[in-house]
Write a structure and sequence with these properties.
Length: 72
């Protein structure tokens, strides 16, 4: 029973490490969930970082895709 348990744990660990390596992301983009009633353009204007709303991902939940300027 211990061998089966250890084998299952080993398979899960190997799979999870592989899944972390294969995650994809888009550099300089953020997904932000704003509170209801908060305007994305106003939020970006008042932000400390230079961000710009790119696309609304969910109008009902007020989730937006924001872009960061490319920094060198």
């Amino acid at each position: 029973m211990k061998k089966v348990f250890c084998t299952v744990i080993a398979i899960v660990l190997i799979y999870s490490m592989h899944a972390q390596d294969s995650r994809s992301y888009v550099e300089n983009e953020l997904i932000i969930w704003l509170e209801q009633g908060v305007d994305a353009h106003e939020f970006a204007t008042n932000s400390r970082q230079r961000i710009a709303p790119k696309e609304v991902l969910s109008e009902r939940l007020n989730i937006w895709l924001f872009g960061l300027p490319y920094l060198r």
